[in-house]
Structures are given as C-alpha cells and as structure tokens.
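User: We ran a pulldown and think these components assemble together. Before we commit to crystallization trials, I'd like a predicted model of the whole complex to look at. Sequences follow.
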Amino acid sequence: MCDERERLIGYLYDECDAGEKRLVEAHLQTCGTCREEISGLRGVRTDLLAWDVPDHGSVWTPFVKARPTPWWREVPAWGLAAAASLTLLVGAAGGVATQAFLQHEQTGQAVARSTVGSAVPLPVSVSQQDLSAMEQRIRGDVKAPAPRVDEAQLLRRVADLIEQSEQRQFQGVTAVNKDLYNVRIGTGAEIAALQDQLNLLKDQLLKSPVSGR
Amino acid sequence: MTRTPAGPATDEDLVARATAGDLESFNQLVSRWERPIYALAYRTLGREEEARDVVQEAFLRAFRGLKGFKGEAKFSSWLYRITLNLCRDWIRRERRAPLVQVPEGVDPVDLADAQASPAQSVEDLVADREMSAAVAKAMAELPEEQRTAIMLKEYHGLTFQEIAEQLDCPLSTVKTRLYQGLSVLRRRLERRQAEQASLRRATWESSS
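Assistant: Here's a predicted model for the assembly, 421 residues in total across the polymer chains.
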C-alpha cells in the first residue's frame, strides 16, 4: 500500500481542495492497490449506515415557566382585611342612604323599598295625584341630611380586624414551628436509636468467633 | 445555521436567550440535539438505558454550564464533548469495554409487527437487522479512539478539524485513526460476509 493514506482519506470524505483531488485521481489511474482500497473503504461506509439507533422517545422533561404570583398575594393579610372591611362598611352606608332616599309613607298603595332582596309589586293603577305626592316626598327626603357614619367606630372596627388577622397568622406560624420542632426531636431520637443498634451489632461482630478475636 | 426572517433561531441565539433566563429557548435546544446526542451515547456505550442517563446528564451539565459557555466553539461541539466525557467516565467506572447488545438470532416471526416499508420483505428486514448487529459488534471491538473518530465523522458529520478539536489531537492523527479504523472494519465485515455466504451455500446444498 502506497503511503497515500492521508490523501486517500481526505479524498474519501471529500475534504481536500481541488488540487489535492486532482493529484489523488491521477494516482488512482495508475495504482490498482489504491483503487481497490478506496473501493473497499467506500463499501465499509455504506455498511456503517446500517447501524440503527433504537427509537428512545424523549428523556428530557422540559423546563416549565413558574406561574406569576397574583398581585393580591403580595398584599399583607391585614391590608386585605382592612380593604374588605372598608368596602363592606361603605356598601352598608350606601344601602342605608338609599333606603332612606326611597322610603315613604304608605297611602293605601304598595311602596317600593330599596332594601336588598325585597321587591313589592306595585298596584296596577297609579293616579297622577299619587305620582305628584310621591315626587314631593322624594324632594323633601333628598334635602334631608344623610345619617352620619361614625368614623371612630369604623377605625376601631378596622383595627380589630387587623389584630384578629395578625393573631391568626401568629397562631399558624407557631403551630408550624411546633411541628418542625417535634419532627426534629423525633428524627434525633430515631438517629440515636439507630446508633445504639449499630454499636450493639459492632460489639457482637467483634466478639464473634469469625472475627478471630 | 443561517437565520432567515421566518426561519428557526440559530443555536447561538437560543443559547443567548437561555443564558438570559429564557427556559423555553433551552427546551428548544434540547429538542434539536437530543436525538444526535442519544445516538452518540448509544453507539459509544451500546446500551439504551445508560445512553438515556448520559443524555439527561449531558443536558443538565450543559444547562448548568451555560453561563460559562463563551461561544468560542459551536454549541453542538460543546455538547458532544460533554457527552463523550460522560461516556468515557461510564466506561472507566464499569471497567469494561462497552457491550453491544447483539441479538442471538433473529426470528422472522418477531418481525411480523415490525414497521417495514411495503417494498421490504421479511428477508430484507432480517438482513438489515443482522447487518446492524454486525456493524455494532465490529465497532465495539475497535479501540476507543478509532471508534470515536469514525462515529463523529460518519454519524455526526464533523469535519476532520472539528474531530481534532474534540479529541485534542492533530489533524493527521484524526486521519490515521479513521483510516486504521475503517480498514479493520472492512476486514471484519468482509470476513463475516464470506462466512454468511458459505453458510447459505451449505444450507442450500444440504436441502437440495
């Protein structure tokens, strides 16, 4: 075999420049050994294509983006409680004002009340006189001052709600700490028990006739 | 890989995005390279389960090492290097040459459910299966450096220069290893084919 290995391999894999390629082809014209070598190596490359890799499916579990935290989870509990209380109180105050606004004396006809959930059917016929009287009454009610909301009471109520929320959180944290402490104590006890058993086994092994002691 | 306006992102783009924290970009890199990496690991180790472990570990290491990947080499080259190192570690740990799972024999009945092309006969399937096993066995018997050079060249299309960088050896050494490895394979496969031909002749003569 001529010492043309490197050139032949470059030619076989088509990784040689045009000049090299011409040189090799010219050589192959005259050298039967190298011609036979190239042919044999090409046959091997074809055989190598037969080596199958079994289908394996995917072995990788794709990364999943963490879900964004909802905005309300970032607000402290006492803040949420305060906002809820304020909303409730404002709604209640509004309801009382609306009730006062719409309520009027009954004159033998049905009265519409604005209290939540209640509806009284109106009479089939309402006279013009009745409507005018109702209008006068409403105008009179609108001019009357709305009942005052006790601000001090509201603040006290909000403060109570905040304190209750904090106490609940504190109790929850205390309970978790207690559980963790118990687990640590339990685990420590188990480890100590295992250590004792290992020491016993070690003593037995040392004393056994097999160990030669 | 050249990027076109509507074409897929290059490896370099995906690596940059993944380094910046875009996990989906890393998932795309894995989808792109999982099959070739598995093929490399499987052909190196000869075992499916171990190859799967190597693939998983290779991508985990790549993910952890992304920030340190400077982009001086191709991402694929880096991945191949990680995979080959893991395979070498496995082989050294097991202290034996990789075993190739060569089937004892091929029962044509087992091939009844095989997905074959309509043009492929059972005999063709048997022949393909036997050839695959023969190549796997012959490759397993090669020295590691020759086998690795042939695998990177034949199955992964690396250039001589890229193989030289992977294996930390000169260009001429890569060519020598390829030449020697292919020559050994040629002798073994030709011997096997001669034995098969002789067996078929003997079977035919005994049945006639």
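The radius of gyration of chain A is 47 Å. That may be worth checking against your pulldown data before setting up trials.

User: Thanks, that helps.
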